[in-house]
From TrEMBL:
Pfam families: ABC_tran. InterPro entries: AAA+_ATPase (IPR003593), ABC_SmlMolc_Importer (IPR050093), ABC_transporter-like_ATP-bd (IPR003439), ABC_transporter-like_CS (IPR017871), ABC_transpr_FbpC (IPR015853), P-loop_NTPase (IPR027417). PANTHER family: SPERMIDINE/PUTRESCINE IMPORT ATP-BINDING PROTEIN POTA, SPERMIDINE_PUTRESCINE IMPORT ATP-BINDING PROTEIN POTA. GO terms for molecular function: ATP binding. Keywords: ATP-binding, Cell membrane, Ion transport, Iron, Iron transport, Membrane, Nucleotide-binding, Transport. This is ABC transporter ATP-binding protein. PROSITE patterns: ABC_TRANSPORTER_1, ABC_TRANSPORTER_2. Residues 4-236 form the ABC transporter domain.
Amino acid sequence: MSTLELQNIGKSYNGIKVLEGIHLSVAEGSRTAIVGPSGSGKTTLLRIIAGFEVPDCGQVMLQGLPLVDHKSWVPAHQRGIGFVPQDGALFPHFNVAGNIGFGLKGSKLQKQHRIDMLMDMVALDRRLASLWPHELSGGQQQRVALARALSQQPKLMLLDEPFSALDTGLRAATRKAVAELLAEAKVASILVTHDQAEALSFADQVAVMRNGSLVQVGDPQELYLRPVDEPTATFLGETLVLTAHLEQGWADCVLGRVAVDDSLRSGPARIMLRPEQIQIGLSPQPEQRQATVTSIDFAGFVSTLSLLMADSDETVEIKAISRGAIYPGASVSLNILGQAHIFSR
């Protein structure tokens, strides 16, 4: 049984379509990431699920019960959905314990016991309970916001770019901790982000949104290796896209003859390779494509190499791990691992 089902969700503002034809299913206890550039409609979709916005059309089902359809609309506070916004939105006039315990029912002792349990759950030192939000680090504030959302025992957790204000190291650690926590609590979750690496790392299912529509939904690795089109490929990570001619499972392109993932396609096409599929060697190999390094854009661990291909006088740019032995003017050979992907559209 799915925790959440979205069917044909649409939304417009002043005649401008923001969402159109959205279909999405979120399995019990799973983590879904909705990823896309700014303005693609991600946050609007999340607000519709939460109950902060009403769609123009479509149906929202939570654990088999309708939240939105042509006959009914359940208000946000009755949906049993937790929501963690981008800035945490903690109450500044409540301390940590007050924020986490907001809305809890029961005696003072029962509330305190529940607050202690929630602080342990999100790995917050209980000694922080008396501190005010402004006295906490960014990561601690996000954990308090998550504990507050979990206090209502939600059926679904919505996370609206909750890690974007954190620095890089803390962002990765907090994201991992939140993913593990939600998995342990067996709460299905939806993360909205414009960071493709964050989406691929966090989720069991990734939904790519562009111009108000979901262009591809699936397993993170499947989307990364077999994106439906060029914009999705480039959005999900570094890639090399080439024009090629297909025939019997092979593509002839600037890199030579490359195996492809569809032996039935033939004729002109666009193919894709991820940087990790391209090995750059310093010793010329006669069976491999030869090139000369014309320039290097050094960026620490990874550099962008401009390569002048032998025999064709064409230049390609390839991301590669930085190596001191590779320098402008060096001769290199290219070895392709696996198959190139052919875009379906």
